[in-house]
Design brief:
Distance between the termini: 45 Å
Strand content: under 5%
Order of helices and strands: HH
Shape: elongated
Largest sheet: none
Oligomer: single chain
Radius of gyration: 18 Å
Length: 63
């Protein structure tokens, strides 16, 4: 099963395979850190804010 991966991610994976995370952070630095923070910010806001809010607004009329 083939999953679409952006070109920058493929480049980062190649760098990680060559020299591990240390080389990846040395070459890309803040870009990797910003992508990591952004990913978890979006994921956590969906999990802990959006889904409970939608559930509450949907079921608040039942109680």
């Amino acid at each position: 099963m083939s999953i679409y991966r952006p070109k920058f991610l493929l480049e980062w994976l190649d760098i990680k395979r060559e020299g591990g995370y240390k080389l990846l952070f040395k070459k890309k630095g803040w870009q990797v850190f910003a992508a990591f923070i952004l990913y978890y910010l979006i994921r956590d806001s969906i999990l802990y804010i959006l889904i409970p809010y939608l559930g509450y607004t949907t079921f608040k009329g039942c109680f």
